[in-house]
Structure formats: structure tokens, C-alpha cells
Amino acid sequence: MSQNTKYLSELRLGDEKSLNQKVDLRVFSLGAGVQSSYVLFQMLEGKIKPPDIALFADTGNEPKEVYDWLKKLIKISKNKINIEIVKNNQNTGNIIDDYKSKEGRYALIPTHILKEDGTAGFGRRTCTFEYKIKPIQQKVREALGVNNLRGKCVEMVMGISIDEIQRAKKPPTKWQISCYPLIENNISRSQILHYMKHSNYGTAPRSACIVCPFHDNTEWKRLKENHPEEFEYAVQFDEWLRDENSNSVGINNFRKGNSKSQQYLYRKKIPLRVANFDEPKDYQYSLFDDECEGICGV
Prior knowledge:
Elements: E1 11-14, H1 16-19, E2 25-29, H2 34-44, E3 53-58, H3 64-77, E4 83-87, H4 95-100, E5 112-114, E6 120-122, H5 127-144, E7 154-157, E8 176-180, H6 181-184, H7 189-197, H8 217-226, H9 228-241, H10 249-257, E9 262-264
């Protein structure tokens, strides 16, 4: 691994040929959550090699505190690291508005499904790919001035900490090298939170869509108690999913093969409005368990 010795080393995963190839572009995938914010701070402080460009993929459904935090990150990075906001431009650019639209492209959301016979199901997920990965890849092609990335070598830096090492995977494309400075240096989320608490930067919020069905009880409770307007937004969307009068490209396609099945945002497949978030914590499937690119929630 050839890397300037003044920077922290990084775990680099990719195609063997790409790993020995000259890097055409270094990109930082900024989720504006705890881990990726820390990576940005370390870049600003000269400890992690800075990128040619930092990209925030906006789903249109992040909490207000994340957007406010992103504005702060852009301000403190000015003239040092260029942060750009990218969006899915194939419909409205808002993951929920696209799902509720009468026509056009939309993403599948991993809702919890209750089938007609009482058995449970789990919705297919394409939201990460459509609203995170694709907009970033499109911007990378634009930055390099190419229509496809075949033969190129792009470093994609991601803020995944050592306690989430299962998310660090070899990318499916030959042009990408996934870089994980936090993993290589055994930096955990708790260490990052301690750092932020004692820094001048402040503590980053959790980055995840308001309506994400992977929220656990702790997150739903936090949203309900601290951000009631956003919780009500999630509640109304949850109820809309089961409204017989709902008529959108997303709902209509779901009902084609699941005419009697019902979708829920909450894992127990009950209305979010009546859910009890004080129940004992048990294991819940996480978006990190099979998250294809390690992009959501960082």
C-alpha cells in the first residue's frame, strides 16, 4: 500500500488490479452521521488523507438535525474540502414523494409485511442503491468526465468504525477501492463520541431516514419524544401505506402480488401510532446486517 506516511493508514478493499493502479479520484462518502463526521474532522486536521471531493447523498428524508449539522460541516470545511450534495434526479428526488407519486421511478422500501395468512414478510430494499449509491456514482462519472468508470480507479472513503467491521466489504465494481481508515486504526463509535464530546465541533446526530423501518425501539422513542413533528410524519406515512384509498406507483405495484398484505414501518407489524417503545430490547434486524455499500447511517 503506497500512502503518504503522514496520514493514517487505511484498510483498502478492491479488485487486485485496481489496488495496484494509479488512483484517478479520491471520494469521501459523507453521511453526516457520527462516524463520517469524525472522518471529516480528521481530514481537516490533516490526519486522514483528504478527498478530491466529498459527497452527501440526500434522500430528502433525513431529520432536520442532520440537515442543520450538514450546513455546519459545509461551513467549517469551506476552502479546505469541497462538500457537494447529490440527489436522485429520476423523479422528485425525495424518497417518500417518489414512492407516493402517481408515476415515475421510485425505490422499494424494506417495510415489515403482514400477509393475508398471518405470516410475516420483509420488503425488498432498493432505497440505498437508488438514493445513495447511484447519485454518488453519477457525480463520480461527471467529475472524471466519462460515461462509464471502466478502467478507472476511484478511492471511496467511508466512515465505518471497528465495531461495525461486518459492513466493510470488497466493492462489487472493479473500478472502486473502498477505504476504511477507522477500521484500520481500531477506532470505535464510542471513542468517536468521546472525542466529539470533548471537542469544539459538537456531537453529530444519527443519520438515517425519518421513516426507516430498521429503527429500533430506542430510535423510535427518541424521535417521538424529541422530534414529535418528524415522528408524526412517520406515523402518517405508516398509516398511508395501509390506506385503501392510497394510489401511487409504489402502492399499486405492491398490491399487484400482495392484494391482501399490509405494510408497516414498525417491526411488530402494528400501527406506529400505538406502538409501545418501552418494551424490553431484543434483537432487531439492522440495516447494517446486509447493507451493500456501508453508506446508510454513517
